[in-house]
């Protein structure tokens, strides 16, 4: 993983020189050079006497690392502010040491050792958090340990009768899919961070993938999980549904490493599709397209992938990152995808009829296939834009259908008000019977403080307009205050109570999630 950007550095995409010049003229920006890895400024590792030895006694010396490169590679996540700081060589959020446990028991022992030495612990999966979920509060702690879960990377069992696979949390999504494919199975979870994010991170941050219409969100897939906390083990989920009190799995899902470390997941799996097909549709307006998506979400039939770009996103071509600059169909582009277990796709005809009845025009397979082909490339484009001096960031929310237009307007107005003349694009990519998510991409010439101020204003606007502060990125540090406003003072007290009970010394990801 590129330590100051996204993904495989070999796949980096240079913007053509004329595009860079155009952007710089339009936005009044200039190229911002980035430092090299060796130039990132770190303070020397600071652990209390004997702490390193205690950690090594649990996992073995080879799995305790504090060299410059390892620390840099475990500093922050992948939000645009994270990348801007890394590009500038700011390693102030680096952990003192990176420790890699090989079992649930080792995690329990490490938590005990860290509690005794008053070390903050940051569970580290793929490191793709975009909400400051990997940047703990250091104050009051003797040091910070990044708990890299990469060694917990096994497929432990497949229960073909129940269609449940038991997997370890450090598995990256492509490797999990590869292991499941050997059994003819899939999770069907394909977020844009698919290539690097881990199963534990998906559960801890309540991720939602691009095929959520067909396979559901990641939290829908979790039948059970095992969690190591400073107070012992939680093992939850023993039936498909239960009336035995509140569902404690829900306390762990979305807990972002603040309540415990997920060490095992029992996940609902599906047969691998034999056919995947994509197609594009055009709508005159975002409102018209939204109505069509709502009809599919409420009355079906639901495709596996269902997304709709607004007018600006359609015009810029961001729905098809590989085709930016090519002719766009105007209006709003919708992309539908169908995974099926047979060569024919009976659902598609029904879905097409609904879209046509709502004023949609079929555009054939090309726009859908182009989206599917380029769907993991947009984050590389962000790096090129950052290098050119543009600030590009995404943010997301969700609301009930009746409130969605108000929410859309509120976010756009807040961004326009805070940033002057940014480019603001939006799409819907997760739909439910009762509502949908809104995912915004913003391109601006704001510097880091300017963007962070704008983000605070947008957060406030989302809360005021009745949306949730996050549909799938999570809370981290960046959304913590807005989350408090969303759940209210009593909700905050409940969170604090749970935290105090499971992690009385407060070592787990301090400053993240819990206000
Ligand atoms: C380019 C890009 C595209 C993205 N696209 C999507 C998308 O389409 N959909 C989506 O949902 N998200 C997306 N994200 C956000 C991110 O990928 C998700 O939040 C993902 O769930 C994080 O997984 P990870 O393994 O990288 O976790 P990390 O970033 O390592 O950790 C995330 C949080 O979970 C905690 N954590 C990690 N593992 C564990 C564990 N085993 N036990 C307890 N706590 C743990 C961490 O401490 C942290 O607070 C995107 C991010 C980027 C950078």
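^ Assign residues to that structure.
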């Amino acid at each position: 993983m590129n330590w100051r950007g996204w993904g495989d550095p070999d796949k980096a995409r240079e913007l053509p020189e004329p595009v860079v010049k155009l952007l710089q003229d339009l936005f009044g920006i200039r190229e911002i050079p980035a430092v090299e890895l060796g130039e990132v400024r770190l303070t020397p590792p600071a652990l209390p006497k004997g702490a390193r030895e205690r950690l090594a006694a649990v996992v073995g010396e080879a799995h305790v690392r504090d060299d410059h490169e390892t620390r840099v590679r475990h500093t922050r996540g992948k939000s645009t502010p994270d990348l801007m700081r890394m590009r500038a060589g700011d390693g102030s959020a680096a952990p003192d040491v990176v420790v890699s446990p090989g079992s649930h028991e080792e995690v329990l022992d490490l938590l005990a050792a860290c509690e005794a030495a008053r070390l903050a612990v940051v569970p580290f999966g793929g490191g793709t958090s975009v909400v400051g979920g990997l940047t703990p509060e250091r104050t009051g702690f003797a040091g910070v340990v990044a708990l890299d879960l990469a060694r917990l990377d096994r497929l432990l069992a497949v229960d073909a009768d129940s269609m449940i696979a038991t997997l370890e949390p450090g598995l990256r999504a492509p490797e999990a899919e590869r292991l499941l494919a050997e059994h003819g199975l899939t999770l069907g979870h394909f977020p844009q961070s698919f290539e690097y994010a881990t199963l534990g991170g998906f559960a801890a941050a309540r991720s939602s993938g691009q095929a959520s219409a067909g396979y559901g969100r990641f939290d829908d897939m979790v039948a059970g999980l095992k969690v190591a906390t400073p107070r012992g083990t939680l093992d939850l989920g023993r039936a498909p549904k239960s009336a035995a009190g509140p569902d404690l799995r829900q306390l762990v899902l979305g807990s972002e490493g603040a309540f415990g470390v997920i060490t095992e997941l029992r996940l609902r799996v599906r047969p691998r599709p034999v056919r995947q097909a994509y197609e594009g549709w055009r709508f005159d307006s975002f409102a018209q397209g939204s109505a069509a998506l709502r009809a599919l979400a409420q009355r079906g039939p639901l495709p596996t992938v269902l997304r709709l770009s607004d007018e600006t996103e359609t015009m810029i071509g961001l729905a098809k990152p590989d085709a930016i600059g090519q002719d766009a169909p105007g209006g709003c582009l919708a992309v539908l995808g169908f995974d099926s277990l047979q060569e024919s796709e009976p659902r598609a005809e029904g879905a097409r009829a609904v879209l046509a009845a709502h004023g949609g025009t079929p555009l054939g397979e090309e726009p859908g296939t182009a989206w599917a082909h380029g769907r993991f490339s947009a984050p590389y484009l962000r790096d090129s834009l950052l290098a050119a001096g543009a600030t590009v960031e995404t943010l997301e929310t969700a609301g009930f259908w009746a409130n969605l237009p108000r929410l859309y307007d509120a976010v756009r107005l807040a961004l326009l008000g805070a940033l002057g003349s940014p480019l603001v694009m939006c799409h819907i990519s997760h739909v439910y019977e009762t509502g949908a998510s809104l995912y915004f991409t913003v391109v601006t010439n704001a510097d880091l403080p300017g963007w962070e101020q704008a983000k605070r204003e947008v957060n406030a606007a989302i809360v005021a307009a009745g949306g949730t502060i996050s549909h799938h990125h999570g809370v981290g540090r960046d959304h913590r205050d807005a989350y408090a406003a969303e759940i209210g003072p009593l909700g905050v007290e409940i969170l604090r109570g749970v935290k105090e009970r499971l992690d009385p010394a407060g070592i787990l990801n301090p400053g993240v999630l819990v206000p």
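Residues 6, 77-78, 122-130, 133-134, 149, 169, 191-193, 197-198, 200-202, 204-205, 207-208, 256-257, 261-262, 379, 472-474, 509, 512 surround flavin-adenine dinucleotide (CB under 6 Å).
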